[in-house]
Amino acid sequence: MQANLDRPIHNSVSSSSKNERELTFLERLYLPEIFKGLIYTLKEMFRPKFTFKYPEEKWDPPAAFRGRPVLVQDNGETRCVACGLCARACPPLAISMQAEEIDDLEKERAPSFFEINMLRCIYCGFCEEVCPEEAIVMSQDYDIVFQSRDDAVYGLDRLLKPKEELKERLDFLKSYKNNQFGSFWDYQEENNRHSVRDRDRDFNPGLSIIDMAEQQTKNDSAAPVKFWKS
Ligand code: SF4
Ligand code: SF4
After folding, report:
1. Closest C-alpha residue for ligand 1 atom 4
2. How far apart are CA 71 and CA 61, in angstroms?
3. How far, in Å, from the CA of 97 to the mean position of ligand 2?
4. What's the pLDDT tens digit per position in 138-158?
5. Ligand 1 center from residue 134 Cα (angstroms)
6. Would you identify the CATH topology of the domain 69-184?
7. 138 neighbors 125 (Cβ within 8 angstroms)
C-alpha cells in the first residue's frame, strides 16, 4: 500500500502513545526537579575542578601530545633536506615544498620554501613518522588562531623552531622510536645533519660514487691528450 504523505498517521501533534502516563501534580509544578538541579550544582561547586580558565590559564601538554607540526632548527639552520617524504605521506596534502641545492658542507639540499596549510592538517603525525632527518616534529603548540585562509598557510618563518625549544618532544621520540623498533633502530642525533658525500665516504672506504663523479668531471674538463702521433 502506498503511504499518503499528505496525511501522516503520527506526528508531534496528533500522536499519542499507549505507554504515555499522566504527570502527577508535583511533576506538573516542575519545582522539585528545579531544586534537584540546584542542589546538584551546589554540590559540584565544592568538588575539585578539572577545568582551566583558558586563555588566562594555559594547559601544559605532555611530550606525547601532538600539537601543530614544526620544522626543527639546528644551529640556526633547518634540518630538512627537502626529500619530500612528509609531503608524500601527508593524508590531506597539507604540505608543499620546493627543494634547492645549497653549497653547504653538511648537506646538499634544503627547502627554498616549505608550507603547511594548517586548515588541512589533521595532526596525524605521519610527517614526523616518515621524516628521515627528524626535521619535522609535532610540537606542544595547540594555540592556533587564523585571521584568514591565507593566514593559515604557515611558511618557514612560522614553522622553524630551535631544537632547544623542542627538546621534550625530541627526547620523547628517541625513547618512543627505540621501544618501537627495538635493537634495529639505531637512530643517532649526529645522523641528522649529514651529507651524502660524507655518508658515502664513511660507508665506502674505496673510491666512492661521489669521488667517481668528481673524477669524471675532472676528466671531462681536462684538455685532450694526443696518444697517436700522426
Ligand atoms: S600532521 Fe598529518 S596532516 Fe598534518 S602536516 Fe603532518 S602528515 Fe600532514
Ligand atoms: S621535513 Fe623531513 S620528510 Fe619532510 S622534506 Fe624535510 S627531511 Fe624530508
Report:
1. 121
2. 19
3. 9
4. 999 999 999 999 999 999 999
5. 14
6. Alpha-Beta Plaits (3.30.70)
7. yes
